[in-house]
């Protein structure tokens, strides 16, 4: 379980009296896909420094590993998905979500070209990045909506999106879920898009949330608030400026195909949330989905156990978001 996975904890100490600028804050993200842009932009656009934070971003594959690093204290913030975070909290992890930038599944269900309808998936191999995260949840929910029994397919842990695309092209996998830019590449390779998750009933889901340790939030509210400002402005600049967004994507994705970058930008610039809040309805949907996977379990309706947007509330009252968007 999650707590067992975190038994090896890195020693992390805070020297009292240091300012936010002296502490080096590490921000984890889970992979190389367009939906990671809100955590790249604050670093690449100099916004962490603008708001007085000395920080770096670090890639830790998958939300589960990112949260393990967060609990261990080796990173201070992590951009992860809500389902993995909720599972960790329910297992006793000292975590809480503080903001979010994407409240829908960014995935499409991609298959070999001969798989044209959901029932064709029976007996097939479906690749995901790892168990317990948004990839697996997206696949399980899609199968449920299509009335395809979970036990009728084989779900395989297959690594990141680029690895799964290669496996798909080599026919080592029959299907997977992909986001841009890999989605566009899959289409150009002749793969079939069986469905876009955004068109399905299960679309509302907090895919990008920022998680921190509750104890860290309590002791470092000023640093958290500064991070929230950088994160919100990074997301806003990405959404509002195509040139800025493309520059961030080009640097981080190392994608040489201009069309792939354009597709990725166009999709996510219209999908991100501003202000950077977690959809509470999406959170309720996620809690209900998780409960449905555990026989006899009931959805926990107390969102305060999982979400603390008090620093965002303070910024809202101070007019930060209105100033940023020029609405005051």
Give an overview of the whole structure.
This protein has 328 residues and is of the alpha/beta class. It has two domains: 2-103 and 205-325, Periplasmic binding protein-like II (D-Maltodextrin-Binding Protein, domain 2); 108-199, 3-Layer(aba) Sandwich (D-Maltodextrin-Binding Protein, domain 2). It is built from 15 helices and ten strands. The strands form two sheets. It has a five-stranded mixed sheet, with helices on both faces. A five-stranded mixed sheet has the order 7-6-8-5-9, sandwiched between helices. Strand 6, helix 6 and strand 7 form a beta-alpha-beta unit. The longest helix has 20 residues, at 221-240. Mean pLDDT is 90; it is low at 7-21.
Features:
single chain; about 325 residues; alpha/beta; D-Maltodextrin-Binding Protein, domain 2; 5-stranded mixed sheet; 15 helices
Low-confidence stretches: 7-21
Question: How many structural units, i.e. domains?
Answer: 2
Q: Report the principal-axis shape.
A: globular
Mean model confidence by pLDDT: 90
Strand content: 15-25%
Structural class: alpha/beta
- Which radius of gyration do the C-alpha atoms yield? 19 Å
Separation of termini?
A: 48 Å
The main sheet comes to: 5 strands, mixed
Topology, please?
Elements: H1 2-5, E1 24-29, H2 37-44, H3 47-50, E2 54-59, H4 63-72, E3 77-80, H5 82-90, E4 95-104, E5 108-111, E6 125-128, H6 134-145, E7 154-157, H7 161-169, E8 175-178, H8 182-188, E9 192-196, E10 204-213, H9 214-219, H10 221-240, H11 242-253, H12 258-269, H13 280-292, H14 310-317, H15 320-325
Parallel strand pairs: 1-2, 1-3, 6-7, 6-8
Antiparallel strand pairs: 3-10, 4-10, 5-8, 5-9
